[in-house]
Write a structure and sequence with these properties.
The chain is α+β, with helices and mostly antiparallel strands. Helix content is about 45%, strand content about 20%. The strands form three sheets. A five-stranded mixed beta sheet has the order 2-3-4-5-6, with helices on both faces. A two-stranded antiparallel sheet has the order 1-9. Strands 7-8 form a two-stranded antiparallel sheet. It is globular.
């Protein structure tokens, strides 16, 4: 029985050949993908938050996550910078939401899995609103500073009524619990900022070596950058946005019909979609395989034991 998830369906719609490599032939790239590593660390911090752990415990869980896969990335200059950012995101999240969430929600499940027939998935957190017992799906997202996530009428929000994950989770959780949940997008707006560099100019009669040494000493240190960034995320609540995605019955029915068509289309031949080879986040990890410059049996790929390794309820 082939299991279907929002991720696998999105992968097929993105590129059928990528779906084949990932879910039919069971391969994944061994190369580090910074965006995925950063997302995993942020999600681990948010998981700790909803497990009602302290900020210090959350930071420990984030550190453990860094060691789990591609730990060398976090020792690079880029990784060290992103580590400081991840820490600020989660510390600020605690500052923004903790008191409010403790009084507003009961936690039904963190990393809640469902398997209904061939449909499966894993939610970030499933909640019960205390005031009216409303079931709430809350999904965590990180968004860039120019994504439009801070603008309610931007395409970032408008497109969500036809989002695969939103409809898939809402539809299946309503089946599991026999009630209609609401869906809340929980967004952390990331920063593109870096430590400040000195703007000093070389003084008259100052050697190039002395100038470079003085200028370096005036640059913002990692400790100073951590303090500045943490303060910003702990005192600027607009960096965190939550918004309910309101789905009408018609929205849901249209998307479910579309997904049914997608499911029926998942069969050979798995064609290459060349419009998906390169995105803002970089090239598809299977690009060189598709053009014949690499093979799945090469050193850049490894076999997966299961198609849906994120799920524990399915084989």
């Amino acid at each position: 029985m082939a299991i279907r998830t929002a991720s696998s369906l999105n992968t097929f719609m993105d590129c059928p050949r990528k779906y084949e490599y990932s879910y039919e032939r069971l391969y994944r790239s061994v190369k580090p993908i910074p965006a995925f590593l950063i997302g995993s660390v942020v999600h681990k911090g948010l998981e700790a938050y909803w497990l009602r752990k302290s900020w210090e415990e959350a930071r420990t869980m984030m550190e453990e996550e860094k060691k789990r896969e591609h730990p060398d990335y976090w020792e690079t200059d880029a990784g060290k910078l992103e580590s400081l950012k991840c820490e600020a995101y989660i510390k600020g999240y605690y500052a923004k939401w903790l008191t409010r969430d403790l009084s507003t929600y009961d936690v039904v499940g963190v990393e809640h899995e469902f398997v209904i027939g061939q449909n499966a998935g894993k939610l970030d957190v499933l909640l019960r609103r205390k005031a009216d017992k409303q079931l709430v799906i809350m999904e965590h997202k990180t968004a860039g500073p120019w994504s439009g996530a801070d603008e309610p009428s931007s395409p970032y929000w408008l497109k969500l009524v036809m989002d695969t994950q939103v409809v898939w989770y809402t539809h299946n959780i309503s089946k599991e619990f026999k009630e209609d949940p609401i869906f809340i997008y929980d967004v952390v707006i990331k920063t593109s900022g870096k430590p400040k560099k000195s703007r000093s100019r070389q003084r008259k009669n100052e050697s190039a070596m002395d100038f470079a040494r003085r200028k370096s000493g005036e640059d913002e240190s990692p400790a100073q950058y951590r303090e500045r960034l943490s303060k910003a995320y702990c005192t600027e609540p607009e960096r965190f946005v939550r918004r309910e995605v309101v789905l009408t019955k018609q929205d849901r029915e249209i998307k479910l019909r579309e997904l049914d068509s997608v499911i029926k289309a998942i069969k050979p031949p798995f064609l290459r979609n060349t419009t998906s080879c390169v995105r803002a986040g970089g090239a598809c990890p299977f690009l060189e395989v598709c053009i014949g410059a690499d093979t799945l049996s090469g050193q850049n790929f490894t076999a997966k034991q299961r198609a849906h390794s994120e799920l524990t309820l399915v084989s």
